[in-house]
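Re: [help] complex structure
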Amino acid sequence: MNALPPALMALRVNGATMRVAAGPMTRLSTVLRDHCGLTGTKVGCEAGDCGACTVLVDGAQACACLVPLGQAAGAAVLTVEGLAADPLGAALQRAFLAHGAAQCGICTPGMLMAAMELLSRTVAPDEAAAQAALGGVLCRCTGYRKIIEAVLDAHRFLDAALPDAPNAGAAVGARMVRADGAAKVAGTARYGDDAAPLDALHLRVVRSPHAHARFTLGDFAPLLAAHPGLARVLTAADVPGRNGFGIYPDIKDQPVFAEGVARYRGDAVCALVGDAATLAAIRAGELPIAWEVLPALDVAAALADGAPAVQARWADNVLTTGRVVRGTPDFTAAAHVAEGQWRTGFVEHAYIEPEAGWARRVRPEGGGIGGSDRIEVHCSTQAPAMDREEVAGVLGLPVEAVRIVPTACGGGFGGKLDAGIQPVLAVAAWVTGRPVRAALPRIESMASSTKRHPASITARAGCDASGRLTGFEFDGTFDTGAYASWGPTVAGRVPVHAMGPYRVPAVRTRARAVFSHNPPSGAFRGFGVPQAAIAQEALCDRLADAVGMDRLEFRLLNALRPGDTTATGQVLEHSVGLVECLEALRPRWHALRAEAAAANARGGALRHGVGIACMWYGIGNTGMSNPSTMRITLDRDGRLTFLNGAVDIGQGSTTVLLQIAADALGLPVRDFALVLGDTDLTEDAGKTSASRQTFVSGRAAQAAGAALRAAILRRANAGETARLRLDGARLHVDDAVLDLAALEAPLEGVGRFDPPTVPLDAEGQGIPYATYGFAAQLAALAVDTELGTVALRRIVAAHDVGRAINPTLVEGQIHGGIAQGIGLALMEEYLPGRTENLHDYLIPTVGDVPPIECILVEASEPLGPYGAKGIGEPALVPTAPAILSAIRDATGAEVRQVPALPHRVLEAVRAARQ
Amino acid sequence: MAAAPYHRPETLEAALALLQDGAAPPIILAGGTDLYPAQAAAEAWMCPAPARRVLDISALSGLDGIEDRGEHHRIGARVTWAALRDATHLPAAFDGLRAAARQVGGAQVQNRATVLGNLCNASPAADGVPPLLALGAEVELASAARGTRRLPLAAFILGNRRTALAPDELALAVLVPRHGPGARGGFLKLGARSHLVISIAMVAGVIEVAAGRVAAARLAAGACSAVAQRLLAAEAAIVGRAADPPALAAAILPRHLGPLSPIDDVRATAAYRREAALVLLRRLVAGLAAPDRARVAA
Ligand SMILES: Cc1cc2nc3c(=O)[nH]c(=O)nc-3n(C[C@H](O)[C@H](O)[C@H](O)COP(=O)(O)OP(=O)(O)OC[C@H]3O[C@@H](n4cnc5c(N)ncnc54)[C@H](O)[C@@H]3O)c2cc1C
Ligand code: FES
Ligand code: FES
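Output below.
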């Protein structure tokens, strides 16, 4: 027997010959993932734009999504799974771990392969060579700097091992390698599209191509008949529970499937469930959908008198208005007043892993379909507990019937805080009784997912003759798109932060979230504060200039200090490290300004400048409870398990919480087994947002460690300072031994923390946050005054993080936040229907992030674990304002609309010269 | 696409024979770096292209070299941007084309994408076109029925995504005529980020300096019109002048950019493009004329 069927094609992958039954035009990425089971090769776009799929073909890096199987056959393909077998590959993996070059890890396989090509050809590459080699792989998390460090340092790891994990009591503050890192560099971490069962049906959402349209659905029977591989079409009528989801308990306004009206380009209309090939072949024109295109409202039109309502419930199209009022700013009495208008656009999260996951309906043991069936959704998410509630609502089930199992998350940045595709997957699996999977193609992901709110801002600030701020006024309109999502959060957070981290006696701020027929704007690193900071920091610069003060000293004069009262009436007692940040920057400020002045003295079209910006950021939800619960168990067999419901989206909570728990307990991190995220196994840690996991869950982890320690010490009758050592089932407590096997029950420590806040009243008075992060950043750059292009030279970032639990991870957050700030400032602009892919929508590449110096300030927060607060969002906030400040410093140009694309900069340079 | 027949012949005869099927000629596949992204874009809004037969030319013999044929250099249809980028032996007239090679996509794309594919795809922003216009290149086409023919590049690319390629034809090579020993090429690309960027505007030129004067100049600009354009008036403005960089730059005037007809799009405004093209062109010319900077690339 056994001549191969003709359809089988052979290829050599990682040294082994594989025979696959796939057509010759099948993308190599599909072949590797679906036919060879090598899911380490990631897919982020299928268009060559992201490089996540980079593999080596005969030693040369290639995007596997652009290589037909027909061309790969006969070639030697190396994927991330084959890297460790090569000593250089293994060294490179260790270098990535040691340098913290992998955060979410979704770009890591592609980065490693691109670097491998370089390192196999060049023993000691320089930075330029590394940039050229990595230029085709996008990373949204790291800001690339640590990746470059790792690549340049890789050869050293040929005979260097990884640093040891910290010992008992030494974890907090250590540059520990991330606990989830090994799987990420090996390509074995399982993301949303990596672990669906083989028999899962595929799901494809049909979306409105129109920003606003009425539609009617016809008879799907002919479509089903024409495509035997199409198992089912799902519409609103198939949603068993509530056809709506949304962040707020009283606003479930986004339909799983729209009913008769589509409100943005990307709105879900129905879904097709079947085999992958069938779904790929079905054309929009075959679907029985009759469209009647309606006029689409932008924010200005939505606010006009008599405008139709985007959603009937909000007749004036205003979703929420947030305000803070303290005193009455009197600008006539101010010595100097600055004012202006600013505009920002939609910004796409551009996580390299698009929304993906799978769901299944689980019959209870013993069979029988009935009321006790459960639904299980495995997905890439930032908020498993919220997903659980959404899925329960949509299916009409109690939450106990829903299990959310977070997969590894290939980037979130706020974009995976919404329910994403979880509701539709759950409906499909529930209705069909079959496992169902989906991974959004990049374009669909960009069209359908939430965005950063575009803002249009009018602001005014005044100061006295000595430079002290006397009043501040801010009015921001935020385009919240078709559905509410996190719009109320943005409208609530912005007015609190809009005056910046300064003492201002009289403040009047307002932010409105307004509906339009645009994509829903949701949560994006900073919740509106980065947009507000652009306006507010520009005013600071202008006032400083008007007073004739150095821009740094002006900020220092006005900076909040411990004991100050904020505009919401909150007295800041502790952990207000802005003064330290500014003082730490001062020498760099002067040095960089001197360098810029020297460069400018040489003349020419390039003008150099240095900018500065500050920020503050409230950690956790705004004036709302946001508790977290952590659990640690010590079993009778000596198994120590940390049950941690917080999802690590790359920012490092898995590692940081482990470091905290370990030191609180007094055992080394290597003793712990981790159970992460699964809603059946862990307690609700709250969502991974608002920079809250280190502070809130960290404090809960500390309490859990302390509780378990107390339980142990009680058993052993030992004193507070006893040293613990775990040796199988024998727990040494100083010189005594606790025989765990002899215990009647496992030991357990549970910790819970809910940061104390007081809700804001109608005037915005209250205690919105228990603590705040503070920061100041410098940006040095050159503007080409003939082309309007901006070349960044350096960023110096000083951040008050309370305590750096893991300095490498903190730096990683700062680098990554800065990279996103660079994107916001200089290149990112999502235009529905026009920049919905990763070649028209530009995010920074490896060559766009200049060297970054991090200065960590630790103004200890008594409420935080070991003094720590958050860093995730603070890192991004000051970058764009600092860049705009530097452009103005270099050229006098006031850029009032971001991104500062070359044509906008050139226009502003011209305007400044007139 | 997966279900349709796929051919990967090794001989030109076999390839041209496949193209003779007038009713349903196969689609030609080289590096695939334009074809696959187009497929992804079409599928995203559920408009997949109907399955077509595929002629994969990646195994054709004899098309993978950059050959010095005396009167011209011949760049075969399988030559990738990486091969061109790494061809350090090429004369300085090729510097612009090689600078473009370094900036087409990232290394992954350069390793597989072909120069000919870039021309055949005929995007207004194709980075290969201005340098090859400046080099005075011709495209060699072949069909089973009519043998080979040559077209100047400007006559080959007819419009946005339109070429003179007949349905039964294959582009075999691009031919670059020999330039004088003093000829130097340059290329300047402007985009909103450092790597992987579609040009907002780009310019290319080949300039020959003899006895301190510009003896010959060929200039072109891309992404500023549906097809990249030679800039004859700009060339005329500098030929014969002393090779003094600032003076040459100043000699190029806005009106010399007449052939350009830029548009407003997500990357820039039309007015900006026109201005940027002028700035880039002046810098390019100045750089190429500067005796101490033989190689101009951005
Ligand atoms: C991430 C990414 C970045 C990119 N960046 C750039 C860039 O910066 N600048 C730029 O100019 N381009 C860029 N491109 C586009 C693309 O890489 C180039 O146009 C490339 O040179 C195309 O070559 P190919 O061999 O891959 O063509 P293919 O995709 O194989 O073919 C392209 C077209 O040409 C036809 N064709 C190919 N060869 C022949 C032939 N010999 N005879 C007749 N017809 C033929 C095909 O039928 C098809 O229509 C980028 C692409 C990607 C994916
Ligand atoms: S998936 Fe291949 S480049 Fe993005
Ligand atoms: S670590 Fe690079 S994309 Fe997340």
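The mean pLDDT of chain A is 96.
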